[in-house]
Amino acid sequence: MTLNGWLQILLFFALVLAVTKPLGVFMARVFNRERTFLDPLLRPIERLIYRLTGVDETREMRWTEYGAAMLSFSAVSMVALYLLQRLQAWLPFNPQNLANIEPSSAFNTAASFTTNTNWQSYLPETTMSYLTQMAGLTVQNFVSAAGGIALAIAFIRGIAQRKKDTLGNFWVDMTRATLWVLLPFCLVGALALVSQGVVQNLKPYDAVTLLDPQGEVKTQTIAQGPVASQEAIKMWGTNGGGFFNANSAHPFENPTPLSNLLEMFAIFAISAGLTYTLGQMTGSPKHGWAVFGAMALLFFVGVSVAYWAEARGNPMLAGTDQAASALQSGGNMEGKEVRFGIANSALFATATTDASCGAVNSMHDSFTPLGGLVPLANIMLGEVVFGGVGAGMYGVLIYVVLAVFIAGLMVGRTPEYLGKKIEAYDVKMAMLTVLIFPMTILIFTAISSVSPAFGTSQLNNSGPHGLSEMLYAFTSGTGNNGSAFAGISANTNWYNSAIGAAMLLGRFFMIIPMLALAGNLGSKKAVPPSLGTFPVTTPLFATLLVSVIVIVGALTFFPVLSLGPIVEHLLMQAGQTF
Amino acid sequence: MVKNLITAVLMTIVTTLILGLVYPLVVTGLAQIMFKDKANGQLIERNGQIIGSRLIGQPFSSPGYFRSRPSAAGAIGYDAGASSGSNLGPTSQKLIDRVRADAEKLQAENPGKPVPIDLVTTSASGLDPHISPAGAEFQVPRVARERGMNENQMRRIVAEFTEGREFGLLGEPRVNVLLLNLKLDEIKPLRK
User: Fold this and answer.
1) What is the mean pLDDT of residues B30-46?
2) Is the pLDDT of residue B192 over 60?
3) B138-184: per-residue pLDDT in tens?
4) A538 assigned to some structural domain
5) A 165-204: CB under 8 A from B
6) Is residue A333 helix, strand or coil?
7) In whole angstroms, what separates CA B118 from the centre of its chain?
8) Are residues A328 and B124, on separate chains, in Cβ contact within 8 Å?
9) Is residue A292, in this structure, part of any structural domain at all?
10) What is the Rg, in whole angstroms, of the alpha carbon atoms belonging to chain B?
11) A355: nearest Cα among A468, A269, A413
12) Alpha helices (runs of H) in A252-357, residue ranges in sequence order
C-alpha cells in the first residue's frame, strides 16, 4: 500500500461526501415536486410524456397499485428487450451484421437489464448490435435505475407521512427520476467521458494493420460503437453492464485515471445523496447522516481489506517483482490495468459491489482470495453501502427497521422508528426480504456445485476458487449486482435460466414486501418520542446498524465463504495450487 | 391493472424513443463535433492505412520492439473485437505455470533480475496499451542492443513516453508501448 494510493481513495470519498447534501436537497425538491432550476426546460417534456402515455400526474397510488405499476412496466420492458434481441439482425444500426440472439441468452439479458443487474452472459462486441445496445440496453439502464429511485422515494414517504395510505405515483416518480436526476448527469457525464477518450460513434469496427505482425495474424479488429452514452448511465444508474466484454477495464470505456475517477464517483453520488434526501424528507437530517456514517464505515473496512490484499500480491509467482515502487504499482497485477494499478482496482471493486453497480475495471476472478472476498461479501451484505440507486436506500431501510426492532427488544420497549411503532407485520415483511436473498443464492449454488454436467463443467478454475465462481454468480444475480468471477462460462441453458430466475427473485421479492412495509408504515399514526425511544440520529445507532448488517450477513454466509475464499487463502499461503 | 398495462406499453415506447434514440444520437452528434478524434477511437494513420489506436495495445514479439503485457483477448491476444481477461484465480496451476514460463524467458535476457509483475500478468481487458516504467526499463538493454542504440539514449526516449500520474495524483505512471515503438521505428527503423 502506498501513500499515493490512500490519497486517491480519500479524494474519491471526499468528492462523494461533498455532493451528498446538495444532491440530497435537490432530489428531495424533485420528488416533493417543488421548483428546481431545470423546470423551465423539463416541465414541458414531462407534461408531454404524461399526455402521450395517459398518466394523471395528480393521482396518488396505494402501495399495491404502486407495486403493480412498477411490475407491469418491468414486465413490458422485459418483453420489449427480449424481442429486440431476437430481431436485431433485421433492424438498422447493425453495421457488423450480427445475428439474432438465441432464446436463453436473450431471456437472461432481458431479465438482467430490467432488474438493474446487468449480468452479462453474452460477449457484447461479438453479439449485440448498436440498436440493441442503444434502444434496448441503454433504455433499461435508465428506467431500471429510475424505478429503483422511485421505490426508495416511496419508502421514504411511507416513513415520513402520517395516517396516509398512498405512497405517490409510480409513473411520476419514475419520469422525474429520469428527467431531473439521471438524464442531466448522463448528458454531461457522457461528454466528459468522450473528452477522456471514450468512443461514441456508429461506424463499423476498424481493421488495423499490426506494426509487428504475429505469424499469420497481421491485422487487429477494433470494436467501436455508441459507448459513452451507455457508459454514463451504466455508472450513474449503478447498472454496470459493459458496452464491451472487458467492461470498465476496456480502454474505450475507461481510458484514463480521470475517467476512472468520474466513473467511480458516479457509482456512489446519487445513492449518497439519497441518504440526505432521507433525512430531509423525514425531517431528521441527522438520521440521514447517521445512515451515511454507517455506510462510510463499511466502505472503508471493505476498501482497506481489498487494497491490502491486492497490494500484497500472489506469493506463488516466483521470479517476479511485486513490490510497489516509483516505477510500478506492484502487487497482484493479473487481471488489472497498468493505468489503474492496485489502489484504483481495489477501490473500484469495492465501490461497484458496495453499490449494486457491477461494472469492473479489473477482473475480480483473478483477485487474491481475500481481495476477492471483499466484493463477494459486499454483495452478500445486501449492497447497502450507499448501494444501488434507490435499491441501496430501501435495502438499508429494511436493516434500519431490524436494528430499531432489535434495540427495542434489548431495552424491553415497543420499538419505534421516527415516530412509527414497528410491529409484527413490519418485522415480518422485513424478514421476508432478508430471507429470500440468501435462500436464492445458496440453493442455486448448491444445485450447481453438485451437478458436474451443467454446473461445475462451466468453471474456469477448480478447487475452492471454482466454488467461489458459482457462489459469486448467484450472489451477483440475486443481489442485482452484475459483476462476476467471470471465468465461469455462464452462457448455457442452466446458468442463463437459473441466474435469470435469481435476478427476478432478487429484485421483485425484495420490492413487494418492501412496498408492503412502506404502505403499512405510512398509514400509521405518529407517536411522540418518549424517554424509551431509541434515537436513530446518534453514532450509537450507526454502530448498531452496522452490527445488524454484518451479523445478518455473517450468520447466513460465513459457512459457504469459509469453503470458498477463506480456505483458498489458507491454501495459497501453504503453496497449494489447483 | 389493465390501465397500468396500457400505460406501461406506452411508457416503454416513449422512453425507448427518448432514451434509446434521441439521447444516444444527440450525444453522438455532440461528441463528433466537439471531440471528433476521441469519439472515433484516436486512430493512427500512416500512408492511408490505419496502424493502430492510441488507446488499444498491440502484440509485439520481435526483439527490437518493446513488448506489451501478455493478453487473453482472442486467440493470440490483443484482439480488440474480443476483449477479455484470463480470469485465472490466484491458486490456478495454469496461472502459476504461465507466469513461471514467461518469467524464465524474460530473465534470460536480463539475468538475475526479478521480472516486473506487469510483464508476466495479463491485463483485465487484454488490450492494455501500457506497461509500467519498471517494465520498460527491464526491456531497455534488449531493445537497445537489437536496434544498435546505446542504453542511455534508449532510456531518454522511454522517459519521453512515460506518462506520470494525472495531476500528479491519479492513476499510475505508465508507458504507451505502441507509441514508443512507433517512435523507435521513426528514429531507427528495424532491419527486416
Assistant:
1) 97
2) no
3) 999 999 999 999 999 999 999 999 999 999 999 999 999 999 999 99
4) yes
5) 171, 174, 178, 183, 186-187, 190-191, 194-203
6) coil
7) 12
8) no
9) no
10) 22
11) A269
12) 257-281, 285-312, 341-354
Q: Report d(CA A16, CA A370) in Å as an integer.
A: 26
E strand or H helix at B175: strand B174-176
By the 8 A CB rule, do A295 and A1 touch?
no
pLDDT band of residue B190 (cuts 50, 70, 90) is confident
Strand ranges, E, within A11-165: 61-62
- Of A192, A177, A101, the C-alpha closest to A491 is A101
Task: Please give the tally of structural domains in chain A.
Answer: 1
Mean pLDDT taken over chain B? 95
Task: Give the residue among A118, A128, A126, A104 at the shortest CA–CA distance from A148.
Answer: A118
Stretches in chain A below the pLDDT threshold 70: none
Asked if B14 lies within 8 A of A4 by C-beta distance, the reply is: no
Render the burial of A164-190: b for 16+ CB within 10 Å, e for the rest: eebbbbbbbbbbbbbbbbbbebbbebb
B178 contact partners, CB below 8 Å, separation of at least 6: A211, B44, B52, B54, B56, B57, B58, B68, B129
On whether the CB atoms of residues A294 and A542 are closer than 8 A, the answer is yes
Residue A508 lies in a domain: yes
* pLDDT confidence tier of residue B3, bands split at 50, 70 and 90: confident
Write down the ipTM of this complex. 0.97
8 Å CB contact between B50 and B44 = yes
Grid cell for residue A140: 433499461
Using DSSP's 3-state secondary structure scheme, residue A152 falls into helix
pLDDT at A541: 95
Range(s) of the domain holding residue A567: 391-573
Instruction: Assign A337 to helix, strand or coil.
Output: coil
pTM score of the predicted model: 0.97
Cell of B46: 500512416
Of B30, B80, B87, the CB nearest to A335: B87
Cβ–Cβ contact A14 with B under 8 A: no
Q: Which residue is listed with cell 468520474?
A: A262
Q: Where are the domains of chain B?
A: 2-36, 42-187
